[in-house]
Specification:
The longest helix is centred in the first third of the chain and has 6 residues. 49% of the residues are buried. The protein has 350 residues and is mostly beta strands. The strands form seven sheets. A five-stranded antiparallel β-sheet has the order 1-11-10-9-8, with no helix packed on it. The protein contains one helix and 30 strands.
């Protein structure tokens, strides 16, 4: 595909399906224990170490395997647990802070769930690689809502400031109410928009990969776009920082960007050889992001950046980390896509 990021991740967003409401999904419980698990599926076998390594308790990492693999998105749930999507296994997972997993297998085995967020209604909402938005209650009841365009698909997703859940599509930004009513706003082009978040200004901010812009959309659908200085930076994740600015990742530029709500952009090089993917604000007042490579790269890592642009990197065993979120135990929790098995990891921030 045109997006390097999506080509590397082999994410297929295809075709359409019908509206369906699913009762309680089939579930499986895994008690994973509390130890670091080895990831031998595809080790990059590299002895090189990224720069700015931070020793000590901060950055201590613990990982839990997910047997079916393909973990993509992750979010802190309303029940005190972490919820995640399993793209390959067509499932939604839940893991307690102690590492006990429950897996809900979706009835539609062509859904390929991706992004996930907690809605204002206390449920979990997620995107699908077909023309649906999914909702799962903390008890595991799944309902799916079909997008108006049968040829479209949902990508990134976030809780909006208006009590609705906002999401991206090729060429559109949409929102869905807690009752399932969908409204869409057209965008100037059909670019990939892998990230969306609510800004401190009460508007939604999103990345446009190939257009190389950061976009802003009001609740009424007015769109403004700001070009990023580094050409071809291939923008992916975006989040609101503790300073009220928006922070985003530049996959091809190997940079973390910051944009004020007035549109002023500053870029910070990561100082590492690996590209940044998704980014979230941490409980320590810093921004945390995943750095992920395919086999043969110099190493996966979880990294953080201060508001002044200082980057520290915490190497991890090969796991292909993707989504990341702030969660229980003052930790950042991340999703590892993996090869034959995925994982959920947590990183101490304090």
């Amino acid at each position: 595909m045109a997006s390097t990021y999506r080509t590397c991740c082999l994410m297929a967003f295809l075709t359409c399906v019908l509206i369906s409401s699913v009762a309680f999904s089939t579930l499986t419980v895994h008690a994973m224990g509390r130890k670091v698990v080895p990831l031998a599926a595809c080790s990059n076998q590299s002895d090189s170490t990224p720069t700015h390594i931070a020793p000590g308790r901060v950055g201590k990492i613990k990982e839990y395997t997910v047997p079916d693999g393909g973990v993509w998105g992750i979010t802190a749930g309303p029940d005190g647990n972490l919820w995640f999507t399993m793209t390959d296994a067509q499932s939604i997972g839940r893991i307690t802070p102690q590492g006990v997993e429950t897996i809900y297998h979706l009835a539609d085995q062509n859904s390929f769930p991706g992004g996930i967020t907690t809605g204002a209604d206390g449920n979990l909402w997620y995107t699908e690689s077909v023309n649906k938005i999914g909702r799962i209650t903390p008890q595991g009841q799944v309902t799916e809502f079909t997008l108006p365009d049968s040829n479209s698909y949902s990508m990134a997703i976030t809780r909006g400031p208006d009590g609705n859940v906002w999401f991206t599509e090729p060429g559109k930004i949409g929102y869905i109410t807690p009752q399932g009513k969908i409204t869409e706003f057209p965008l100037p082009n059909t670019d990939f928009r892998d990230g969306i978040t609510t800004g401190a200004d009460g508007k939604l901010w999103f990345t446009s990969s190939n257009e190389n812009t950061i976009g802003r959309i009001s609740l009424q659908g007015k769109v403004t776009e700001y070009p990023v200085p580094t050409a071809g930076s291939n923008l992916v994740g975006i989040t609101t920082g503790p300073d009220g600015n928006l922070w985003f990742t530049e996959y091809s530029g190997n940079k973390i960007g910051r944009i004020t709500t007035k549109g002023h952009i500053t870029e910070f090089p990561t100082g590492t050889s690996e590209p940044p993917l998704f980014i979230e604000a941490g409980p320590d007042g810093k921004l945390w992001f995943t750095e992920s490579v395919t086999c043969g790269g110099s190493g996966d890592s979880i990294a953080r950046i201060s508001l002044k642009g200082v980057v520290k990197v915490f190497p991890i065993p090969y796991s292909y980390p993707v989504g990341i979120t702030s969660g229980p135990q003052s930790a950042m929790w991340f999703a590892g896509f993996g090869d034959f098995s995925g994982l959920i990891g947590k990183v101490a921030t304090k």
